[in-house]
Each structure stands twice: as structure tokens, then as C-alpha cells.
Amino acid sequence: MNEERSTDRLARYIIWAASAAAVLFLCWFFRSVLVYIVLASVVSLLGRPIMAVLRRLKIKGKGAPDWLLSIISLLLIMVVFLGVVTQVVPVVSGIISSVSSNLQSGSFRGSEFTEWIGRFNAWLVGMVPALGTDFRIQDVLFGWVGKAFDLSSVTSVVGSVASALGSFGIALFSVMFIGFFFVKDETLFRRIIGALVPDRVEDRAMRVIGDIEHLLCRYFVGLLAEVMGVALLNFLGLWLIARVGLYPAIGIAFMTGLLNVIPYVGPWIGAALGTVLGIVLKYSGAAAVGVYPDFAIVLITLLAVFICTQMVDNFLFQPLIYSASIKSSPLEIFIVLLMAGHVGGIIGMLVAIPCYTVIRVIATNFFSDFKPIRRLMAATGSEQHA
Predict the structure, then answer these.
(1) Predicted model pTM
(2) Where are the alpha helices (DSSP H) in the chain?
(3) Which of 23, 269, 298, 334 has the fewest CB atoms within 10 Å, counting from its CB?
(4) Domain ends where: 309, 324, 339?
(5) Looking at residues 90-103, what average pLDDT do you find?
(6) Helix (H, G, I), strand (E, B) or coil at 262
(7) Structural domain harbouring 252
(8) pLDDT digits (tens, 9 = 90+) for 38-70
(9) Residue 229 and residue 317 in one domain
């Protein structure tokens, strides 16, 4: 009898292992389709607030059908996305061309900018003699920026993008087509999951999917609002205070807003990149008239703009988005981001919070009997109430 039970248990383990291996193989084989489904889910989460607003609109007491509202919601998302791409990308491309040409020609190297840098070089060599008397920080800076914004590399990137437009078109159509059904029927994804799980846990699985959808919807909408808020603040500061010009301010603000999506690291990269671009564009514009601004004032102004924006982001935007949206403590989020960055780099940090939200909700509903999970939930809840 015991031998039969052991044999049955071993057979079940083998079946489970084989099933898991088959599922993983199918996920890997159809990974592009899974990516389309995931992106369509994100689009549907962004479209739900739009659907909620459109459903409130009534004409003679009657509302439009859900299929029409779904199409309108997706069209609005596409118009905003394509509008930003078509309007901002040429501006960013113009900034890259201007920076590259000015760095290659050295049109402002005789200005007060180089005098200030010369004094800084002398101080730096005095503090670190190992650098050598020939060390010039501007050569390092110009070389780095020149490589980053080299026209030949930009041309190759544009060529690669152009060759990928066909695949992009297929992906865009697939995502929008799948997203249409997800937006039209908010319970579709839940029913799909419900058909895959055993009957005894179906009700609990439906609650889990509902919680995940609610939290991720708040997170992605909040993240989009954060990108727009950071870009808007940087644009106003660069245009009205730093006086870098309208179109350069738009391009730099757009880049810093996108980089801000990368947790913790992105804002620093955006601020450094924006400061360098602002200085180069400011002095390249001054070189045309032969009147150069004070470098220290330009540097302090640019840094002040990005620091003020970052303070608003840290103390206003992020607490509302990360902590409130996914119901996790800042320390918890920080540790998760560190682990994700160690495993997957920047890509890992980008997907860490959504993935952790899913894992956290599943653990709360299915594994709450485990002491570490129960204590973690209790600690987070008490911290939020405090």
C-alpha cells in the first residue's frame, strides 16, 4: 500500500513537472504573442478611465455602445501617442544635430565657458595629481557627448528604426486589436484566468485578478501623469528661467520625462543629460552673436531647475503613485528595485513594480497563512495608517 502511494505521488510530481515544462516551452515559443497580450493589457488599463468618462456621457438619456466607446478610447490613446512622437521626435532630432555640429566645430571654445573650465581643471589636477598636467575635463566631456550625439550613430539608429517599421506596424495593430476586446469587456481577462484555474480556487482567483487590475490601472495612469508632470515642470523651468529657447526646452523636457520612468537612476541621468545639453545649446546660441553668458550662472540655473523638479517629484508625485497606488511601503519598493536592478539592470527596474504588485497580491490572497507574508502585510498596513 505504501509503495503504491509513493508510486502515485511520484507519478503526480512527474506529471506536474512535465506540464510546467510544457507551459514554459509554449510561453517561450510564443513569447512575441505574450508580449502583445501584456502590452494590450497595459493599453486597456490606460483606456479604462477614458471608458469610465465616456460612459457618463448621455445623449437624450442614452449612451453609446461599449464597442464604440472602446474604439474611441483606443483612438484617443493612439492620437496622443502618435502626436507626441510626430511633434517631439523632430525637435529631439534637431537638438541632437545642433549639439553634434557645435561640438565638432568647437564654435564656443573661446568663450568665458572655457576660462571657467580652465580654472576648474587647475583645481582638479591640484587635488588629484595622478590625472596629469595634460588632463582636460572638457575633452572628456566633449568626447562623451560627441559620441552620444554623433550624427553617424544617429543615422544608423534611424535606419534601424525605419527597417523595423514593418514589424512595428504589425505589433501596433496586434496590440490595438487585442486591447479593443480587453477595453470593451473588462471581465474578459478574468474569465480567461477563471477557465484555467481549478473550480475550488476560482472565486479567490477572480478577486486576485480584480485587485491586480485595480492596482496596476492606478499605477500606470499615475506613472503617465508623473512623466507628463516632470516634463512640464522641466519645460517651464528651461523655457522661462534658463532661457534655452522654446523648442530646445520641449526636447530636453521630453527626454528627462521619459528617463524619469527609470526608478532612482533615471532622474539623475536626465538631470545630467539636460544640464549638458542646456549648456551646449546656450553657448552655441551665444556664439552666433558673440555675447557669452556667465557659465556659473548658467550651470546653477540649470541645476536649480532640475533639482526643484526632482524635489516636487520625490515629495509629491512618487508618494502618490508608488506607495498609494500599489499599497507598499517606500522601503519595500526600494529593496525590490535594488534586487531587480541587480538581476535585470534598467529593464528589470522598469518591470519590477508591476511584477511585484502581481506577486504581492497573489501572496496576500493565497499564502497569507505563512508568517513572513502575514507580518509583511501587517507592517505595510500599519505604516500606511500611520
Answers:
(1) 0.70
(2) 2-29, 31-56, 66-105, 112-127, 137-148, 151-163, 165-184, 188-196, 202-236, 246-259, 265-289, 295-312, 318, 324-326, 330-366, 371-385
(3) 23
(4) 324
(5) 67
(6) coil
(7) 217-324
(8) 888 888 888 888 888 888 888 777 778 888 888
(9) yes
